[in-house]
Amino acid sequence: MDITIGVLALQGAFNEHIQLLREAGQIVASKENNSQKKWIFKEVRTEAELTSCDALIIPGGESTAISLVAQRSNMLEPLRHFVKVTRKPTWGTCAGLILLAEAANQTKRGGQELIGGLDVRVNRNHFGRQVESFQANLDLPFLQKADGDGQDVETSQKPFRAIFIRAPIVEKLLPRVSGIQQDEAKAEETVIAPSRAMDESVAKDITLADVEIMGVLPGRTAAVKDDGMEEKLDAEAGDIIAVRQANVFGTSFHPELTGDPRIHVWWLEQVVEAIGRRKKS
Ligand code: GLN
């Protein structure tokens, strides 16, 4: 079975994703015995290329530039169709997360189009000018397997060194709606994604769930603890930097710039599961 993973290659760090996907594909293959799977990783610039994909990554870069190029190359509607109508697995990193949000702040009206797919509001360039870029060790619960799952337990539990570059955060989880985010549309500085309904005859396997918080950058209260007490990862205590809603996943940071393939491995496994579910339904 061939599985084709596309990386949107209109602007930004698409090449780095392809490199790390190749590495991750080998790790996934080595974990499975006698797998008949063949991974194909490809750059996506046209509708025909997108249609041939089973899953898609939207890379980091500049979300305004990506959306502008997508608009000029007639890719916005095919992307909305891929993510919101057929609901194929999609992962956005940094600018990619912004494009997958249903609402985004700090964006000029008319200056930015969104694809949507995640019922969240992101705040662009959240960390401001002072700390435009920084690195942080994240404890990402979805990577931590008690049995190591093919790698040693220590590797699976090691914090993920995340690179944030003029990064957005998820500042609000929005109600799950089937149309547009009406309340968000009222705010001055917020842009919203147009509504596209899921095609239930194609996406038979999908139940639109609420947004799940997958990772948090500990806030000051959580990070500053030095009294020897165990630090608790608490959604209230920090900024939300990873979310998932059904097949759509978004991270504020850039795993493709670290050389650590763990999130790519995890995501490829999610894609395999999603394809399996769709086949059965
Ligand atoms: N600040 C960028 C934007 O608004 C995102 C930065 C990134 O992808 N590293 O699109």
TrEMBL record:
GO terms for molecular function: glutaminase activity; lyase activity. It catalyses: L-glutamine + H2O = L-glutamate + NH4(+). SUPFAM superfamilies: Class I glutamine amidotransferase-like (SSF52317). CDD domains: GATase1_PB. It comes from the Eukaryota. Pfam families: SNO. Keywords: Glutamine amidotransferase, Hydrolase, Lyase. It is an enzyme of class 3 (hydrolase). GO terms for cellular component: cytosol; glutaminase complex. Belongs to the glutaminase PdxT/SNO family. This is glutaminase. The lineage of its organism: Eukaryota, Fungi, Dikarya, Ascomycota, Pezizomycotina. The gene is PDX2.
